[in-house]
C-alpha cells in the first residue's frame, strides 16, 4: 500500500537524517451557539425536525494548555447530538519532514506537503480515517467539520497530538448555508489557503419500505446527503476559485448510487447517493476551467460502528456472501484512494466515480 511504501522510505533514510521534532501538537475547536430548543437526534447525529439556527461560531484554541477564545458571527446552527458508538482506530504516523526530499518523482506525486484540507463528517469513522491519511502525507492544516461537538473535538485533539498538524474543529451542520460559508471563510483566513475538500458528512436510513416512507424523514436525508454536499462543495469551490490555485474536491458517495442494495429497502439513501455521483460529474465539468478537480468515492459495505450492531448481523452475512472478497471494508480502506484523489497523482482525473466495494457490484 502507498502508506506502507512511505513508511519503508522513512525507515530506510532514518539512519542518515538528523532527528527533528514534530511541530507542537495544536488543535482548535469551534462551537456553534444554538438558539432555540435542542431537538432529538437520530441517524448520523443530525437533529430531527426543524433546523436549529445560531448567530455565531465560538472558536476555542488550546496551545500549551492556554485557552484562547474568539467569536465569529454566522447565520445558522445545529443542536448537540447524542454521542456515537466508537469505531476501530489506529494512531496516525506523521512522515518525517526530511523524507519528502528523499521521495522518487513518482512517490512525490502522492505527497501533500504544505496543503490545507477540509473534512466534513471527520469526527469519526471513514471521515476521521481519511483525515488521518492526509496528515500522514504532509498536509499542514486540517479543518474537521462535524455536527457532533464531543466527537469532533476529540478527533481534532487526537489528530493534532498524533501528527503535530494544525487541526481546527468546527461544529457545523452541512445544511446550514450561512454557517458553512462563514466557516470556510474562517478556515481560509486562518490557514491562508484551501486545497482539498473531503465531503464525507451524511446519514443512512435503511430497512424502510418505499410505500411507507415518512416524507419528513425522506426530505431530511436528501437535505443532508445532497443539499449538504452541494453547499459544502459550493463554499469550498468559491474559495478555490478566488485563490486562483484550484484544488481537489472528493465527494463520498456510495455503491448504492449505482446499484440497488439487497436485502434491505433504502430507496431514499440510494437516490441521494446517485445524486451525489451526478453532482460530482456536473461540478467537475463546470469547475475544470478553474483548475478544480471533482471526483467521488463510492464505498461498498464498510465495517463502521454504525454497522456493528446486533440488528444487522443477519444482513451482514448476506452482504459478505454477495461480496467476492467475502468481507466488509475496513474503516481505513478508503485512505489511500482519498490521498490519490487529493494529490497530483490524479492530476488528469476529474468527474470520476471510484467504486471501492470488494467487488460487490461485479455480480
Task: Characterize the structure shown.
The protein has helices at residues 2-14, 105-108, 125-136, 149-163, 177-191, 215-243, 267-287, 313-321, 335-342, and strands spanning 26-32, 41-42, 46-47, 56-63, 66-73, 116-120, 141-146, 166-171, 196-199, 247-252, 292-299, 353-356. The protein has a single domain, classed as NAD(P)-binding Rossmann-like Domain (Rossmann fold), CATH 3.40.50. Helix 5 packs parallel to helix 6 and helix 6 runs parallel beside helix 7 (267-287). It is built from nine helices and twelve strands. Helix content is 35%, strand content 18%. The chain is of the alpha/beta class and 363 residues long. The two termini are 26 Å apart. The chain is globular and about 50 Å long. The model is unreliable at 1-24, 32-45, 47-52 and 76-84 (pLDDT under 50).
| Portion in strands | 15-25%
Tell me the major beta sheet.
10 strands, mixed
- The CATH topology comes to Rossmann fold
Would you state the CATH class? Alpha Beta
Which percent bin holds the helix content? 25-40%
For the secondary structure, the number of strands is 12
Distance between the termini: 26 Å
Q: Give the strand line-up of the largest sheet.
A: 5-4-1-8-7-6-9-10-11-12
Question: Which assembly state applies to the chains in this document?
Answer: single chain
Average per-residue pLDDT, rounded, comes to 85
Q: What's the structural domain tally?
A: 1
Our Rg estimate from Cα atoms comes to 20 Å
Mind telling me which CATH architecture this is? 3-Layer(aba) Sandwich
Q: Can you say what the CATH homologous superfamily is?
A: NAD(P)-binding Rossmann-like Domain
Question: What general form does the structure show?
Answer: globular
SSE order, one letter for each helix or strand: HEEEEEHEHEHEHEHEHEHHE
Number of helices: 9
Question: pLDDT below 50 for ≥5 consecutive residues: which ranges?
Answer: 1-24, 32-45, 47-52, 76-84
Amino acid at each position: 500500500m502507498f502508506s506502507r511504501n512511505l513508511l519503508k522510505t522513512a525507515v530506510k533514510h532514518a539512519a542518515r537524517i538528523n532527528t527533528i521534532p514534530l511541530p507542537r501538537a495544536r488543535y482548535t475547536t469551534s462551537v456553534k451557539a444554538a438558539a432555540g430548543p435542542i431537538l432529538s437526534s437520530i441517524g448520523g447525529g443530525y437533529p430531527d425536525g426543524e433546523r436549529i439556527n445560531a448567530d455565531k461560531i465560538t472558536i476555542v484554541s488550546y496551545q500549551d494548555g492556554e485557552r484562547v477564545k474568539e467569536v465569529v458571527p454566522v447565520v445558522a446552527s445545529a443542536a448537540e447530538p447524542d454521542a456515537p458508538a466508537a469505531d476501530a482506530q489506529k494512531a496516525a504516523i506523521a512522515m518525517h519532514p526530511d523524507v519528502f526530499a528523499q521521495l522518487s518523482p513518482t512517490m512525490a506525486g502522492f505527497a501533500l506537503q504544505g496543503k490545507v484540507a477540509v473534512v466534513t463528517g471527520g469526527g469519526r469513522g471513514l471521515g476521521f480515517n481519511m483525515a488521518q491519511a492526509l496528515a500522514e502525507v504532509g498536509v499542514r492544516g486540517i479543518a474537521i467539520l462535524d455536527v457532533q461537538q464531543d466527537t469532533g473535538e476529540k478527533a481534532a485533539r487526537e489528530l493534532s497530538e498524533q501528527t503535530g498538524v494544525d487541526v481546527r474543529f468546527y461544529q457545523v451542520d452541512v445544511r446550514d448555508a450561512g454557517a458553512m460559508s462563514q466557516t470556510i471563510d474562517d478556515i481560509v483566513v486562518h490557514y491562508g489557503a484551501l486545497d482539498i475538500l473531503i465531503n464525507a458528512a451524511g446519514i443512512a436510513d435503511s430497512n424502510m419500505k418505499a410505500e411507507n416512507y415518512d416524507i419528513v424523514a425522506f426530505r431530511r436525508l436528501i437535505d443532508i446527503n445532497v443539499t449538504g454536499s452541494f453547499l459544502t462543495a459550493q463554499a469550498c469551490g468559491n474559495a478555490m476559485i478566488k485563490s486562483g490555485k484550484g484544488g481537489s474536491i472528493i465527494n463520498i458517495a456510495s455503491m448504492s448510487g449505482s446499484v440497488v442494495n439487497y436485502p434491505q429497502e433504502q430507496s431514499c439513501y440510494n437516490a441521494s447517493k446517485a445524486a451525489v455521483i451526478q453532482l460530482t460529474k456536473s461540478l467537475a465539468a463546470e469547475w475544470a476551467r478553474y483548475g478544480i478537480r471533482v471526483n467521488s468515492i463510492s464505498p461498498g459495505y464498510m465495517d463502521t460502528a454504525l454497522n456493528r450492531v446486533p440488528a444487522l448481523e443477519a444482513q451482514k452475512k448476506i452482504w459478505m456472501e454477495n461480496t467476492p472478497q467475502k468481507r466488509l471494508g475496513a474503516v481505513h480502506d478508503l485512505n489511500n484512494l482519498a490521498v490519490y484523489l487529493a494529490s497530483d497523482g490524479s492530476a488528469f482525473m476529474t468527474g470520476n466515480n471510484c467504486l471501492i466495494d470488494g467487488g460487490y457490484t461485479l455480480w
